[in-house]
């Protein structure tokens, strides 16, 4: 099993979408990229901790490739928006890929270059690609949030 971590705005819808992909074994929502240890949702929402809302994806690389996960990531949000997605704004909603290996880092950068060269978006891609740091699991009520409420999507 391997891990991949993506921030694409509010983590509820992102988690649901990644969970639908064959070969994804598990998804966990949390916070990554900030300075505060053990951040809470309330603290992250102040936009002062430096964390992004992210989804940590555990996947079976024999069933789904990292490139397929990258394609899903870019398809499910607007990677040209800086520090926002839809009605949500702040650095916690930034478009970011936290890479767990040098290979993931290279693949993510190559995917951005490919999409940019193809003119896939009218504006430049704002997605950050950075090595993974400490992943802090979000509070339990955020895990499978939409599923627990009988919802299939939110505004992403």
UniProtKB/TrEMBL annotation:
Q: What is its EC number?
A: 1.8.4.11
Q: Where are the transmembrane segments?
A: none
Keywords for this protein: Oxidoreductase
The record's annotation in SUPFAM superfamilies points to: Peptide methionine sulfoxide reductase (SSF55068)
Q: Which GO terms describe its molecular function?
A: peptide-methionine (S)-S-oxide reductase activity
- What InterPro entries would the database entry show? Met_Sox_Rdtase_MsrA_dom, Met_Sox_Rdtase_MsrA_sf
Q: What class of enzyme is it?
A: oxidoreductase
Q: Catalytic residues per the record?
A: 10
Q: Which PANTHER family would you find in this protein's record?
A: PEPTIDE METHIONINE SULFOXIDE REDUCTASE (PTHR43774), PEPTIDE METHIONINE SULFOXIDE REDUCTASE MSRA 2 (PTHR43774:SF1)
Q: Which family does it belong to?
A: Belongs to the MsrA Met sulfoxide reductase family.
What is the protein name for this chain? Peptide methionine sulfoxide reductase MsrA
Supply the source organism for this entry.
Tunturiibacter empetritectus
Q: Which gene encodes it?
A: msrA
């Amino acid at each position: 099993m391997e891990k991949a971590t993506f921030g694409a705005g509010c983590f509820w819808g992102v988690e649901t979408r990644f969970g639908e992909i064959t070969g994804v074994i598990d998804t966990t929502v949390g916070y990554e990229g900030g300075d505060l240890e053990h951040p809470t949702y309330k603290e992250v929402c102040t936009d002062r901790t430096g964390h992004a809302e992210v989804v940590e994806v555990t996947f079976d690389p024999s069933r789904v490739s990292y490139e397929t996960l990258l394609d899903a990531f870019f398809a499910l949000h607007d990677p040209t928006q800086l520090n926002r997605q839809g009605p949500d704004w702040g650095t916690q909603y930034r478009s970011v890929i936290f890479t767990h290996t040098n290979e993931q880092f290279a693949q993510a950068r190559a995917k951005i270059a490919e999409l940019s060269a193809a003119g896939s978006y009218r504006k430049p891609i704002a997605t950050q690609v950075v090595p993974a740091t400490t992943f802090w699991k979000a509070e339990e009520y955020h895990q499978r949030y939409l599923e627990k409420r009988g919802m299939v999507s939110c505004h992403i």
